[in-house]
Amino acid sequence: MSHPIKKFLLVISITFLLTGCWSRSELNDLAIVVAIGIDKDEDGEYLVSTQIVNPAEIASQSGSGAGTINYSPVTTYQTKAHTVMGAMRQLTTISPRKLYVAHIRMLVIGEEVAKEGIKDILDFLSRDHEFRPDFYITVTKNATAKEVLSVYTELEKIPANKLFDSLKMSEKNWAPTKGVFLDELMTNLVLDGKEPVLTAVTVKGDFKIGENQKNVQEMIQDAQLKYENIGVFKGDKLVGWLNTEESKGFNYIMGTVENTVGYISCPNGGHITKEQKNSKSKITQKMINGKPEIFVNIWTESNIAEVNCEIDLTLDTIKELEKRGSEEIEQHANRVIEKTQKEFQSDIFGFGELIHRKNPTAWKTLKENWNETFATMPIHVDVNLKFRRFGTIENSFIEEVGSSNEDN
């Protein structure tokens, strides 16, 4: 057989391999899963809730007319089994379509499940090739995952989209939250010297009203989904919560604060609101007298956003405000360090992982009892805050109002 003919037959053979997809499914045969919630019942079985898009309702752009039935934009199914995989498969007895999980946006883990441990859940997610790792993972606080996924949400018809976008926006503009994807969570679980964190989500208001479509037909909703700071893990188990200031302190230490708001007390009463910008941090380690110490340097720029006191923004007062603003951030950082050391003994900052990378010889002796070492290790925090903008006016008009009142 001639060489050109061999080439031709090879090309023809390859085209046969490219003419189809063995796993192709028709869109009408699929149920698009956008969120999964995982709880446990009294018997220890997994309760898996799946939020599935109702495509006909989402696609409908016309208003409801006489005799029209308004369906929910999503449907939530729940099944239970000894394993997450088993519960997911049992959903085929309820759903008329094949579950399609490649577009999942949120995984919501119930608080009680997280306290028992999440390694089995992550094992299932990492093994199933249909899951993509680009979804957020959160843990509930004072609510179940099913309750969170059953609340109708305003502005966004699909609650999973509301949860995804709210977490993204709050992380970027408020700072006591942190968006965590599957890959990051699993990495933090297996790294030596670093523990995971997840943002908490809760139901504010009356859940029973929230699961009714009327919840979004009123100007003020009776139930809303809200993110509530950061949950601390030790290994794969949830061990406690940070408050708002501590959650901000954590993100300052990690250098992940993009934008947030803080307050500085004025010398003569009242306060100034600062808009935090461009925060970054550097963490270093040293062995001093054979023991590890950590040094955290935080640099941040701020704008003066609101002045609720009588003050002249002179060079001296600005320097004083910068000092007070630095002290405020330093307090947040020290509070979260103290809490994670004394209450949780959980190194969510990755200080141990830093020592592992920079000083592997020292880490060999520290690794076995790292939690105990972390709990008493000296950690030094230094914050440098600088103001860049002061608004469109130099001083607050409050001072002029005060002077005017005195004249009268």
Automatic annotation (TrEMBL):
Residues 24-202 form the Spore germination protein N-terminal domain. It is a lipid-anchor. Residues 230-391 form the Spore germination GerAC-like C-terminal domain. It comes from the Bacteria. GO terms for cellular component: membrane. Its main location: membrane. Keywords: Germination, Lipoprotein, Membrane, Palmitate, Signal. PROSITE patterns: PROKAR_LIPOPROTEIN. Belongs to the GerABKC lipoprotein family. This is Ger(X)C family spore germination protein. It comes from Fervidibacillus albus.
